Amino acid sequence: MSRPEPRLLPSGRSAILVECDGLDDVLALHDALSADPPDGVVELVPAARTLLVAVDPDRFPLESAASWIRRAVRDALPAVAPATGETPSDDLVIEVDYRGEDLADLADHLGVSPGDLVARHVATRWRVAFIGFAPGFGYLVADDWPFDVPRLDVARTRVPPGAVGLAGAFSGAYPRESPGGWRLIGRTDAALWDPHADPPALLVPGRVVRFREARA
Asked: Start and end of every Carboxyltransferase domain (predicted)?
């Protein structure tokens, strides 16, 4: 059975919201559009089931943008590219101290040892699917990640910056102190959000990420 064709919805006079069938389609379409964007494309903003295409309508009218998106849909879907990327040397490596407060309990819940859970997290090549929740908070996915991790029944009122967590099929790291309900397995000192950098977020959609256990 063929998947539904993405819907294109005008979002004001300078953006089009593309509604996709799921995250795989969003990632494939994001890759296709970002490969060679025409002059006038301002930003591509992926989410779990949508992709917002922001344009400068004076340089790239919405009608032209819609035609460009439809051509990309025909080229990119239904063949969905793997989420792992091609070149390991391009991977962003983030060092993690895997002594998170939820590591032992989560491993027990999943039926593995804490060491096995850490080893699987390190061995997985993750990809930033989209940004959400807070500036710089990337939702990372992987085709071969086997676990569906339940969120905490009661969210913490304070999660420290750099905390690395798991929730559902996602991994992520908190760029700053905030409340949160993800299961915390470690912490990183990486600068996840720097408003003075370009781009300010270390984790940007499409980036391939590898975690590495920090030496004691």
From this structure: 6-203
- Give the Cα separation of 127 and 183 in Å (integer): 19
Asked if 65 and 116 sit in the same domain, the reply is: no
**CB environment 116-129: b (16+ within 10 A), e (fewer):** ebbeebeebbbbbb
Per the CB < 8 A criterion, the answer to whether 6 and 73 are in contact is: yes
Q: For 7-57, what is each residue's pLDDT tens digit?
A: 888 888 899 999 988 898 999 999 999 998 999 999 999 998 999 999 999
8 A C-beta contact, residue 189 and residue 173: no
Residue 130, strand partner residues: 139
CA 44 to chain centre: 13
**Coil, strand or helix at 118:** helix
Query: Do the domain assignments include residue 82?
Result: no
Please identify which residue in the block is written with the tokens 């039926």. Answer: 111
- Token output for 200: 């300010």
Between the alpha carbon of residue 15 and those of residues 11, 92, 133, 138, 154, the distances in Å are 5, 30, 22, 22, 37
Residue 99 domain-assigned (yes or no): yes
Pair of tokens at residue 82: 């793997």
- Which residue, chain included where needed, has tokens 């391939």? 208
